[in-house]
Every structure is written in C-alpha cells, then in structure tokens.
Amino acid sequence: MASPNLSNAAAIVGAAEADVIGYREELTGHKATSLQLHIEAINNVCKYTGIPIADIQGVFSAGWTGELAEHLGIHPRYLDTTSVGGCSFQIHVHHALAAIHAGIIDIALVSHGEAGWSYRGGGGGGGGRGGGQISPGAEMTMAYGTFGAPSQYAHAMVRHFHDYGTTLEDFAHIAVVTRDWAQLNPRAVMYGKAQSPFGGPITVQDVVDARIIAWPLTLYNCCLVTDHGGAVIVARPEIARDLATNPVWITGAGESIGHQNMVEMEDFTATSASRSSATAYEMAGMGPDDMEMAMIYDSFTITAAITAEMLGLAPRGKGYTLWKNGDAAQGGRLPINTSGGGLSFNHSGMYGMQLLVEAYRQLSRTAEDGVNGIEGKQTNATTCIVNGTGGTLSTTGTLVLTSDDR
Question: End-to-end CA distance of the chain, in Å?
Fold first, then answer.
C-alpha cells in the first residue's frame, strides 16, 4: 500500500524552553517539577508564536497529555501519549504531521518537561518504572552485567572498538567539538566555570583522562543530568504562513524500533535509525548528501557516532570522523548539535525535545539572540536531519526539516 505524501504538510512555527533550565535548584533555590517545566515552555511558545493556548487542538507528550490538557484548561480533539524514550518528540512531530495532513487538527502542541536534576536519583523520568520495580526485560539484562545506561552503552563502544579498530581518543573528539559549541550558548550547563566546575573548553586528553564511569566510558563521554522543559507548535501551512514567526517545514519523517532489551540487539553498532532515516529521506525526496546540518541524540559519544553512520552521514565505523575532521565543528560543512548537545548543553533524561528546539532556532534564523546563542552560533543551513534515540539504542525517530528560505 502506497503511503500518502506528507512532505511539507505542516511546519514547526515556534519553539521555546522553560524559564530556567539546567541546574535549576542551584540557580533559583527551588526544585522544579516536571509539570512546571512543561507549563513554562508551553506558555513561552504560545507567547512567541502569538497562538493562544485555547487554539491548541492536539496535545502530544510522553505520557503527560491528559495532565497538560487539564492544567491548560483545554479540550483537545487529538491526544497522543507515545512514550518510547528520548525519540518520543520526533515521533510526536511525525504523528502531528499525519493528523494535520488528515484534516483532524490544524494546530498541535508537542511538549516535554523533565526534572532530571531537581529529582536526581529517581531516573529523571526517562528511565525506570519507579516504585522500586524492575521490568522483566531489565532482570534479564542484569544477568549479563548491564544495568543502567552507562554500562549498556559501554558494551556498544567496546564492540565498535572490536569491529572497526576505533579508540577512546577517536570518540573523545565528539565530546570536545560538542563542548566547543556549548561555548556559544549561554544557557549551556558547560558554558563556563560559573555554570559548572567542569565547564569551559576541554581537550581530547581531558576526555581520555577523566574518571571512568563504565569502562571505557569516561565522564566526558556521558551526557549531563539536568532539568529541562521545551515545547514546539506544529501548524497547517496556511496558518504557518500567516504568523510573524519563521516556519520550519517538516519535509520528511520516519520512525522504527530495533529491540527493547539490549540483549536482543542484533548488532551493537547498528540501530533502527537506518530505517527511520530511510523513510524520512524518501518522504523528503532527499538523501544524506543534501543535509547541511544534523541534530543527533548524544546520550553518549558512542550514540552520536553510531547514529551518524546509520543516517548515512559517514561510512560504517567512521562516524567519529565528522567530529575529528572538523566537519561537525563551527565553520564545518555539517554542523552537529550546535547547542552543545546532551553532552554539554542539557540532558534531562529524554533529549529529543532539545534537538527539536535547536533545529527550529537554527533553521528559523533565531539561534543567535544573546540568550540562546551568541555570535558564531547561527549557521546558514537550510536542511537539517534530526534523529532521536529511545531506550538503549532501541527506538528512533527521524525528521528532515527545511528552512522557509530554502
């Protein structure tokens, strides 16, 4: 059965974050709740776009949809609670695109709030089931020495070492370049020493010499734990063109899953992003060579490298070269994670929303405002591939986004 052509059937018309993100308790003296982070981001994106909350017809979130509708005082006609980890928000955009194309709704809200720092120790809301329960899948995985994200992703890195001859130094370049981007983002947790004692520029040797978290992953190979709230609004083309904000077009979208438990992963160096991106590229009528920028889930340096390979941006085993050769860096041919990524900007537990917000800011030409980016952060990219990863290299959602001036 032929799929309908959803390309450019809707646009992201605005993106915003919560008032205070990162180490919020330390910055304000008060813990944030996940709901509070949601509501602040929604309020900000509605102000930014000029779209009243009452006009929202569809609400998409990772399990918070009913709660959000109640707190916003709205009665949406489309509800989506898809929660498959950090890629949930790319998948929400895909679903919103389909709902708008089908004529069910005109305006959709995709929202995320996660108090990963304020309530650290509880998994940040992106992982376990809470209440001390261990899922049957986790019980099986624990028997093989993998419990908790670092130990699982460490297996993927070791396998990459074995299959492709890569080294810890190779992956260290990902952490270094991503930290360099964070130096252009005042909201980044690792912007400087004032934000964190670990902040400021780092070197490859710093990454290699940092304390081990789960061998061979050192501290700088691992993402942050922070608070974050973010929201984007997706709208029908006629509405998008009538707003004062710059639309960013959803030109391609795809989603896929490879496994749920890591012991069932067919290849520790390959993910379902190869399939979700193939669907997105096909819808967009584009390919990897057409991409001028990438927002890639970087829960760990190995995640970013493998995903780049799956997206066709680099050959198998060579994903790290995008960072090592300067392609992903400031002034490179393919800027990647221009906010500072989950490694140095912000990572609340599910990082997909941060990818969306940054992609919108770059493609709408609003990435440089002295708050979310200083001189040098704005790129000239007109196309961007955005890939979120959920679970343990399990589920992926991929979007091809294009600027209005493409």
Answer: 31
